[in-house]
Amino acid sequence: MTLSAPSLRRAAALSVAALLLAGCGTGQTPAAPDPSPAAASAGSPDASGHESPEASPRLVTTYDGGVQVLDGETLQVLADFEMSGFNRINPAGDGRHVIISTADAFKVLDTGTWTDDDGTHRTSDPVLTGLEFDTSKPGHVVHHAGRTVLFSDGTGAVESFDTADLAGLARGEKPDTETHTAAEAHHGVAVELSNGELVLTLGNDEERPGITVLDSNRGEIVRNEDCPGVHGEATAAGEAVVIGCETGVLVYDDGAITKIDSPDAYGRIGNQAGSEESPVTLGDYKSDPDAELERPERISLINTATKQLQLVDLGTSYSFRSLARGPHGEALVLGTDGALHTIDPETGELVSSTAVVEPWEEPLEWQQPRPTLTVVDHTAYVTDPSANTVIAVDIESGTVTGSGKLEQTPNELTGAAGQVHSHS
Question: Taking the model in full, what pTM does it have?
Answer without folding.
Answer: 0.89
